[in-house]
Design goal:
Elements: H1 4-46, H2 48-59, H3 62-89, H4 95-103, E1 107-111, E2 114-117, H5 118-134, H6 146-169, H7 176-189, H8 193-201, H9 205-225, E3 228-236, H10 239-250, H11 255-262, E4 274-279, H12 282-286, H13 289-297, E5 307-309, E6 312-322, H14 329-337, E7 342-344
Antiparallel strand pairs: 1-2, 1-7, 3-4, 3-6, 5-6
Helix pairs in contact: 1-2, 3-4, 4-5, 5-6, 6-9, 7-9, 10-11
Length: 349
């Protein structure tokens, strides 16, 4: 029983506190009402159309939805104009500009009747700018900067679009399964690939897979429009070893077994020296012109004599040939490009 007065006292304190709080809220409400009256008086005097709009909504509530729709449309158009100015006039590459480019259909270029969109241009530009910033100082293949970089990005996107059209004309496509397999192969070689592409380029895995899909499609188009050879090689560092490998093959040893025994190319010796398919100009750029000449001039199933390159001595076996167009890819693309109508809306300068 001795605790009851204490409980009553506590409840009384709460009651007093709530009453005072209510009085405070009433005074604050009256203060806000006076402020609103003054603001409303100023609006009626200096911005009369606001009163007219409010009166219009009170008289006909349906007009509220019409005005809201007009406001939203105006806001949408205003942001669209802002995006166009940032992209085409100011040439901004900011994240805000890129987000606007995603929301609005602002073209970067037109290839015949197909568009290359500005958000694609800005994202590729961001990837290479990020690489410029984050790449190790000893990386020799840094992308160009400023106007040259913008031109490179634009030309690359136009080329990708042309390849898409050429692929469609030939019934070629790239499946998600092909992209996933290519990505898994890259991960097998570089387990921390996702972290590296994020660090170097600011790319997500989805971004990187898009680039892989473009690369695979290019390879498929090349395989159809250009002659390609499949080549195996045995690489040695001395003429003695090269001559020994040649003699072993002439003596009846299979090329694959000779590659395992004599080749010093650790990446290919265990799979028979297979280097895959190559179009004209690619082997010359990767190894040297003599090796490419041997690959294209050697009949399928035949083996070349030892050929010297900056890497050592190669014995070449041509295992397959496809197509009959001996142009390089660059020659074919230049000729193909001339047949397209290209309009570029984002300038490099």
């Amino acid at each position: 029983m001795g605790k009851l007065p204490s409980s009553n006292q506590f409840l009384e304190t709460i009651k007093i506190f709530l009453i005072e709080l209510w009085q405070l809220l009433k005074r604050f409400g009256r203060f806000l009402a006076r402020i609103w009256q003054r603001v409303w008086a100023w609006i009626r005097l200096h911005v009369p159309f606001v009163e007219a709009i409010i009166q219009r909504h009170l008289n006909n509530p349906a007009t509220l939805f019409i005005d809201l729709a007009i406001f939203v449309l105006t806001l949408y158009l205003a942001f669209g104009v802002t995006g166009a100015v940032l992209i085409y006039k100011i040439k901004s590459g900011s994240k805000f500009t890129e987000q606007l480019a995603v929301l609005y259909p602002l073209p970067a270029a037109k290839v015949n009747s197909s568009f290359v969109w500005s958000h694609e241009f800005l994202s590729r530009l961001r990837f290479l700018n990020t690489f410029n910033t984050n790449a190790p100082s000893d990386v020799a293949s840094r992308p160009p900067s400023d106007a040259d970089l913008r031109k490179e990005v634009m030309d690359g996107l136009v080329e990708n679009q042309i390849l898409v059209i050429e692929a469609q004309n030939r019934g070629l496509s790239v499946s998600q399964d092909e992209v996933n397999k290519a990505y898994d192969a890259q991960v097998a070689q570089t387990p921390d690939l996702a972290a590296k592409i994020q660090q170097l380029y600011g790319m997500t895995v989805t971004d990187f897979k898009s680039v892989l899909a473009e690369k695979i499609l290019k390879q498929k188009v090349e395989a159809v429009v250009l002659e390609r050879v499949r080549v195996s090689h045995i690489l040695t560092t001395t003429t003695t070893a090269a001559n020994a490998a040649e003699a072993a093959i002439k003596g009846g040893m299979s090329f694959a077994d000779a590659a395992k025994q004599f080749s010093q190319d650790a990446q290919t010796k265990d799979n028979g020296g297979d280097l895959g398919y190559w179009a004209k100009g690619e082997l010359a750029a990767q190894i040297n012109q003599a090796v490419e000449d041997a690959a294209f001039s050697t009949a399928v199933g035949q083996v070349s004599a030892p050929i010297q390159s900056p890497y050592g001595f190669h014995i070449i076996e041509t295992t397959d040939k496809t197509g009959d167009n001996l142009q390089t890819y660059n020659d074919w693309y230049s000729k193909t490009l001339a047949g397209y109508k290209i309009s570029k809306y984002i300038s490099a300068n």
